[in-house]
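agent> Task received from the user: take the single chain below, predict its 3D structure, and emit structure tokens. No templates, no multimer pairing.
agent> Plan: (1) validate residues, (2) run structure prediction, (3) serialize to tokens, (4) report one or two observations.
agent> Step 1 OK, no nonstandard residues flagged.
tool_call: predict_structure(input=
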Amino acid sequence: MRSGVRLGVDVGRARVGVAVCDRDGILATPVVTLGRGDTTVADLRALIEEYAAIEAVVGLPLSMRGDDTASTTDARLLAGELAAFVEVPVRMVDERLSSVSAQRALHQSGRTVKGSRPVIDQVAAVIILQNALDFERSVGRPPGTVVDPTQGRTSS
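)
tool_result: status=success, residues=156
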């Protein structure tokens, strides 16, 4: 397991949830929900710098069959913009059901979905990052694919 803080990112059309993990890569925790707009990538860069993150892990929202969706394209675009704007690797990892799991967890804790939308994005970012950390710990290699900042594509 590599040492270093990682930033987890859940990309949505209106909001972007952000989480970080400890330097040992054991536990992901929520940080903030950013509004989606012209400053989103700069805001993510500032968080990467603030936490001295070694990489950003962006959720890739595939359909249940593994196909791309409109959200998949949106997440790839944001990840590509971020990769071109930061000095650390940006990885994309499968995030199927992270938002559903986040909503379920908040509902079970007594919170309503309507009043918890910004928190749901943070919890989804925690789930994305925690799954990536658990994968790396069990398999011994980094999760997902690295976004190529010059081509706007991903490579393994």
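agent> Step 4: summary for the user.
The chain has one domain: 6-149.
agent> Done.
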